Please model this.
Amino acid sequence: FYGSYPITPASDILHELAALKNFDVYTFQAEDEIAAMGSVIGAAFGGAFAATGTSGPGVALKSEAINLGIMLELPMVIVNVQRGGPSTGLPTKAEQADLLQALFGRNGESPLAVVAPASPADCFDMAIEAFRLAVRAMTPVFVMSDGYLANSSEPWRIPDPNDIEPIRVHHRTEVEGFAPYLRDEATLARPWALPGTPGLEHRIGGLEKKNITGAVSYAPEDHQEMVQLRAEKIARLADVIPEQDVFGPPEGDLLVVGWGSTYGAIRQAVQAAQRNGKSVSAAHIRYLNPFPRNLGDVLSRFERVLVPEMNMGQLALLLNARYPVKVISFPKVQGRPFKIREIRNKIDELLG
Model:
C-alpha cells in the first residue's frame, strides 16, 4: 500500500506505483499529507506493507502521525525525497537538510530507523532494506533520498526475484499467551496481530501504556520502561545491519565521510587523490540510525574526518556528538550537488 499526497520531488513514486494495480499494489492519493500518513498507519494495522513518500514540508505535516506510528509500534516506511528549504524553499533543487528532522523532528523521545541510498540503483535495495528493518523491529523507518537522486539515472541490472532475501512476516494467530505488547526476546518487537483475528482483540493508541498488556498507564515507571524499550529496539538493529566498509586503506591521514547522493562525487574525488599519493579513504554511511556497529572504530583509525554534505553540517554534528574524533564539516547549500573538483580541492587543502 502506498498512500501519498503529491509533492515535488517525490510525486514520481506515486505516478509509477499507480500503474501497478494489477500486481496487488494499492495506491491512494490523499487530500493532504496528514491524511496520507493516517492511511499508511491504517494499512499497516491491517497487515499491509505500507509506505508514504514526501519531501521536507510534508514530513513536517506528517510528524504527529509518524509519532503515532512509533507509539503503536507498527511497521511502515516514509520516503523523504529532500529538497531545498526551509518552508516552500527550493522545490526543484536538491538538499540534504532533513536529517536532523528525521531523527529528532517529533515531540518526546521518538526513535526510529533511518537509511539513505547512495545512488539511483541503491534506492531499490534500500527500499527493501527499510521494510526489512521495519518488520523486524515493528517501527517506522525513514528512507532519506533527495532531488538529485530522484532525477538521476544509471544502468541497473534487474535482479532475479529469487535472489532477493525474503522479508519474513508473522501475523500472529495463536491465542494462548497473546498480549499486544509482548516482546520478542531478540528484537523487542511486539506481535503483528491483525484486527479481526479471533481471540486477539486488543487496543492500541497514542497514549502511553504498560508494557506487555498495552493498557493505558500514567505510572512513571511504565513510561520510563516504554521509552527505554522503544529506544533499545532501534539500537538493536545495529546487530543485523552491515558493518561500515571503507574505500581505500583502513587507516590514514584523512577519511571522507558522506551519505546519500554525495556518494559519486566523494568516490571520484578520493580516487583521484589516491592516485596522486594522498593518504585518504572514503566511507559512505547508508545506515544513519542506528549507525553501523563498527563506525566508531573506522573513524578512530584516521587523523581527521571530512564530511561533505548538502546542509550546514548535520551529519558532522551527529558524528562529533557520538564519537571522539576530529570531524571537519564541509557544507554546501546551493541547491546543487557537489562537484568532484570541489571535494578534491578540499582534500588537497587539508593534506597539502
